[in-house]
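for the writeup, i need someone to sanity check this before i put it in the appendix. the sequnce is what the collaborator sent (i think, or maybe the updated version? ugh). structure was predicted straight from it, no edits. if anything looks off just tell me and ill rerun, i have time this weekend
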Amino acid sequence: MTESNGSIEQQAAVEQPQEQRQAAMPDWEKRFRAPRVSLPDWAEDAPHRSLFVSNATGTYELYAWDRATGEQRQVTQRANGTTDGVLSPDGEWIWWFDDKDGDEFGIWRRRPFTGEPSGGDVDAPAVPGLEPSYPAGLAIGRDGRTAVVGRSTDDDGSTIHVVRAGEAPVEIYRHRESAGVGDFSHDGSLIAIEHTEHGDAMHSALRVLRPDGSTVTELDDTKGGTVELGLEVLGFAPVDGDTRLLIGHQRRGRWEPLVWDVGSGEETDLGLDLPGDVAAEWYPDGSALLIAHSFEARSDLWRYDLASRELTRVPTPPGTVSGATARPDGTVEYLWSSAAEPSAVRSTTGEIVLDPPGLKSPGAVPVEDVWVEGPGGRIHALVQKPAGTTGPLPTVFDIHGGPTWHDSDSFAAGPAAWVDHGYAVVRVNYRGSTGYGREWTDALKHRVGLIELEDIAAVREWAVTSGLADPDRLILTGGSWGGYLTLLGLGTQPDAWTLGIAAVPVADYVTAYHDEMEALKAMDRTLLGGTPEEVPERFEASSPLTYVDAVKAPVYISAGVNDPRCPIRQIDNYVTRLAARDALHEVYRYDAGHGSLVVDERIKQVRLELDFAERHLGSL
């Protein structure tokens, strides 16, 4: 691997001769090119050492940041980028995941936080003896010598290993169904894992193990039948000898935190009176929790004192907090944005924590909230349109992926690009989306895809009848699950859409199932109630390939040739069927996985999508 020792500041300085070109650059391109950073992770026992992700070089890579000296140093440099990295608690080592061209199948490597080691490979395999796999969680011990590594493969299912420096890895868990590492206790005596041995990949159970693999205790909220409740690991208390584990549960129909003492079995329900989903993490001394609250596409932060049970708001601007962490001095750092304002890493001190120099991202138009009555309840949609315009407008329905995800009042360069070109953009938090309660998220089982499209159709009807959208200029688009819904919608609602643009989609559900990574096979079995051989009628009803001959609109598809989530063969099957009847379509294949981490490639794809729309809808 080529080494780069340049800081963000140095790399930005190299770009200064390009200022004139940047000045002439359209706003939509500036939003993609402007340097962005993730919320910095910090080392528990060396909090001045941090790790973050940035696109400062034009590719998303990992950076080390020594807060004591101010030095920032790029530590990975690969053609297709790197975003999966973990900083060891002692701050001495950076672990990063090395896959092949975005296929998500590879090994963990590690390198020293500062400089190159004396002798040896600067990026040596972190776990010699473990074959390549898909990652399934990683927890590193405070001793710097021990780690817990989760992995999955088609042959082995899920395995978890304890790794000690200089010793062969020891397998402590194995199962065909999905499982992963949750956390490693502060003193290294306990390991929390999430598993789905019961066969429901949407709702995990918890098990606490000792490093020798023996079981300490378990917690399982799955009830079987039609009522399943999930659990998730949020982290062990950051105190030696403390057996409290912070977990998330769904016992009241939404995600909430509770403290489970795995030693005594005692459960402490926080009883937070907050609507929507609630997550949490420990303050560094274990005396309080940082509460992350999400409700109706927006989020905020709170501090919960465990002794007094007092809940105090942590001030943040209106919008979306997409990550937050409490520092040892009691301050909170958080990654914030709104639809109108670009993301920034802020602190409760009032400072911007990381502010990359160079090109600044222009803002965008704010989002408007719309609620539409649908077949399964009220549907929340987010609308953006060019300032000062009135309808009917050419309108893009930009459908989110997941499906267990949601669109929010946060900055997004893609929708803003459409708005810049004169389109209204509608984003729909259909049934299956998170943030609206467990029943809403779990609603799409068995009639997968068709349920989401019912909600999208209801919002489409509102957009047309309200005068916002021109019914003759409606684009259905999305990536991943959103790309799947795009192709499925073009086939099942052929008269509703003028154009379809699908990125990294599921196109042929049966072939996708057989080719995709093991964890997604488990999810599909949960969603559809079995394998393609066990429930063929459900896979057929939910597959875009079933309806391909009904598609009337021009179709644009982009796909990563190394994608393990929406593999290329099943897309080729769909395209072959389009070509067989001379249906108007275009396909763009690129050398990456489930999307690209290269800024130039992302911009190229947006240009191609905008051009496709202009050619087929005409000049606006």
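The CA atoms of residues 154 and 518 lie 5 Å apart. The two ends are 47 Å apart (CA to CA).
thx in advance!!
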